[in-house]
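Model: You mentioned two targets. I'll fold them one after the other.
Researcher: Yes, keep them separate.
Model: Target one:
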Amino acid sequence: MKNKNIIITTLLLIVTIFSACKKEDEMEPPSISFKTGGSYVSSSVSLPAGSALLIGIEASKSESEGEDEDVLTHFNISRSLNAGTDASVYNVDLTAAQEEDYDYDFATTVSTTVGDTEKYTFTITNRDGLTGQVSLTAVSYTHLTLPTSDLV
């Protein structure tokens, strides 16, 4: 009987310990998306070589319960040319005023070499090191001007 009480007490103690342990919430990365409308480019595009390109992003920290402290800390834009290695073209640590929401407009010019493919990757990072990412591709092509004729 004494052994039975010890076993029951031990089992109750184990059940109590494991039920008191709260499973950690699954951490969620920050969100990031392209701005749309106006002159913003928000998806892959082909443009005449040397054309202006405006890409805007909007990012925000995770809105999940328990993620209050997972503020935004870092933003990076990288570019690869013709499927080559990514190179950072813009890199910034965010300020306290930007830790919940961040937006940025990136103005650039597509390659002047016809046929070049440029991939732009936009990455937002939170305090836990989780990242959100979006990317798009810009392809340069020849801009043809058709001759005008004096047709009557």
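Model: Target two:
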Amino acid sequence: MAWANTQKWGDNSKPKRHYNLNLFIKRFGDTPMNEISTADLIELLQDIETTHRQRNDPTKPSDKAVRCRGMIVDLFAWATVHEYCTTNPAEPIANAKTSHILETVSYGNRQALVKPNEFGELMHDIKHDNRMGGKYLSLPYATCLHGRKNWRY
């Protein structure tokens, strides 16, 4: 699909995004984009919401339908600009994330990887460990900056 080739998806997210795109393609296949209605898109999203459940609680929907809704909105915006369709059937659901169309998804609080008191003890031990000659004193600060791109110390 031409639209997918225009997306700058990272290597980590590419398989999930292609899977989401294939959910759309399986439903509509060779149907011309100008023949797909808003009702068709809502039906697809509700089916996705029904079939894709949270791993830890199968009674609740996952966020798959919400993610697919965002992809469909982007897809039809692109298709409208490039004249694959004359109207955008995804426009009415563009802000439907928390509306009556899809259930609000909540995962609750996720547990921390490290308990705060254990993390504090680790930072204390690193700070007072002289085996490295104080060379790596910035390590506690580096842990706070984890995830930042191109940081220097």
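Researcher: Noted. Anything on target two?
Model: Residues 64-81 form the longest helix (18 residues).
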